[in-house]
Amino acid sequence: MFGEKKMKKLILLVFLFIQCNFITIFAQKYYKGIVIDTLKNKAIPNAKITAKLSNKVSITTTSDKSGFFKVPFDSLEFDNSKGLIKITKKGYQDLIREILIQSNRIDTFRLESLDYIFPNIIITAEKNPNYIEELHKFNYQIESKELQKSVSSTLGLTLKNEVDFFVRSMGPATSKPVFRGLGLDYLKVFENDVPVKDLSSTAPDHSTAIDPTIFDKIEVIRGPKLLVYSPNAIGGIVNLSSKDFLVEKVDRISLTGKGIYESGANSKILTVLGEFPLNDFFVSGSYNYKKALDMVSGKGVIPNTYFNSNSGNIFTGGQISNFSAYLGLGMYKLNYGVPGGFVGAHPKGVDISLERNNQMFRALYHFHTILDNVTISFNRTYYHHTEYEKTGSVGAEFLLKDYYANVNFNFQSQKPFNETILGLNFQKSNNQYGGYVFTPNTYSWLFSTYLYQSIKIGNHLIDYSIRFDHKEYDPMNENKYTKNPPKNRNFNAYSFSVLVMHYLNDIASVGLNLGRSERIPNIEELYSNGPHLAAYSYEIGNTDLNKELGYFAELSFNLLFKNSNFNFAIFDYEFQKFLFPQNTGTINVSQLLPIYKISDTKARIFGFSTNCSYEILPNFVAKFNTSFSRGISLTENSNLPQIPPLKGQFKLEYQFQKVQVSIFTDFALRQNLTGPFEEPTPGYAILNSNVRFWFPISKVTGVVNLSVENIFNKLYFNHLSRIKSVYPEIGRNITIHFLLYF
After folding, report:
1. Domain(s) of CATH 2.60.40.10: residues in the chain
2. Which of these, 280, 397, 611, 677, is most buried using a 10 Å CB contact count?
3. Under a CB-based contact definition with an 8 Å cutoff, are residues 340 and 388 in contact?
4. Superfamily of domain 131-741
């Protein structure tokens, strides 16, 4: 009863706060538009828009991440009148066009690329209010040429060289990104603003059920806005997307072909994407095929590291007046191997087959009042995962049926408020287990409500968010659980985050992020009680676990000059309760598997990151970044396990007309600060190179990217690999990546 009263008070306070904020705001009309890249038919963010509504009125703004912009105007003076608009963006030809000013329409503006050349550093005279967040890496996108150079067969390998990102794996197919050494629950994966539901965060042998090669951009979100997407205020999300069909219009036929070959595993990836308009409606789809043989490391072939997959999606929908909506169907099938040959492992490894199907519906309606618009999202996911012994018998089986619903109320921006989002989430999941998995079939329900607001006052940008989550677990109490039987659990979690950013002058800015985060334990942490054969571990949960609680602070500093940029951030996560699987140092006699038990400890994770670039000569740039995390169990006065060492990258990059060449080294220091029963890992430095060029063929544009990883075929190990005791990382790897835009 006490929890229900607290929840009612919280919701009441949220609505009272919104009423206070907007009681003086009057309805305002806007002229709206979208800025699109003509070649790729994709949105252009951070374009500068100058609208001249009369001889006396001129207003400047910028496009958001979806290319969308809006210009306020006085409805009594300007509605249905003519105006002039100018759109500029580095790397594109300026566009000047006459417009008809109407509040009930959204115009599309297409910019022509300047020889497909992109700037190294973007400096705008009119700052986007949220541009400072991009500088400080709280909300940024990886797209165009940067994504083309780094995209790989898995999401973990695609993000491995990003600042603060590391890779955990049990072979190439299982490579998953982690943020600052935190657990897998602290980095959520989204697809077109909808969560990807799989079991990748529950075990090291589980792969992420998404293919990054079919997407054109990856958005990274941290800070207060993270609570719009995730229950955790610590960590982040990565959102993979190609086009937001709710605001971006498909108005011409486009076709894109992609191909990737990697010599390190003899892998081949082929992707086709297409868009077709049908009056006010559209059809869009993609298909991807991927196949790889066993990976070749610095000391030879690693057996049973193959993978092959098929994936695709199709979307259809349209935009009519103030309403837009679309339906989506997605499919992903993957077969892969997990190698053996070490303590507790099967001699020849394990084979895994998984399938994920999802059905999605999203809609957007514009009210053009204080409540600007409402977005609604529904998603149903079917996920089936089977692990086979080499004899063909089923070692483990997982089935997940998940239903997700979300409503976001987006309020009009009115100084000093840039953005306000009030949202509700509901999620229902059915987890079933088979084979030699000693986790009970479990139903779970999650309800969430949250508020996010961004405020611009002078040289200050203030973001804050609050979130409440209520989750219930209902395990099936089967007869096989004679000891520590599972029981129903209910959790209430409260989290908040505040980010204050300030422009010290035209070149310097500083940011401070503070908050509190509560994380609800997952099913495996609560109820696991037996072997996980493919993960080569015997896992013991704790049905009496309490929720995880942490407080955090992050201070960041950025300098932005004409030809250089420097960013530095330090962070400290103080966990009053920290949950993680601890190697007990004992072996289960019947299965000969190392026993991992969920530990509940007081802990601290702290560290720093740097990211800088300097233009030595015109078109010749040097870049450098480092990432460091340190984890300590304050209860045991020992190091936390699975914390990565300091890593970094130094790069020299030169661009000449339509060709870009770079040479860079990736390095990591030796990790001696290991947890109990964890082995240290030696440091390394490997040399890599990349050449990228584009060429026109009639009405088709081609892009070719050639890279060589680990040029000298050096033997090195990833500290976060569960198989590092016997298997190193990939050896010399030549990658050819080509794209054709029709």
Report:
1. 2-111
2. 611
3. no
4. TonB-dependent receptor, beta-barrel domain (2.40.170.20)
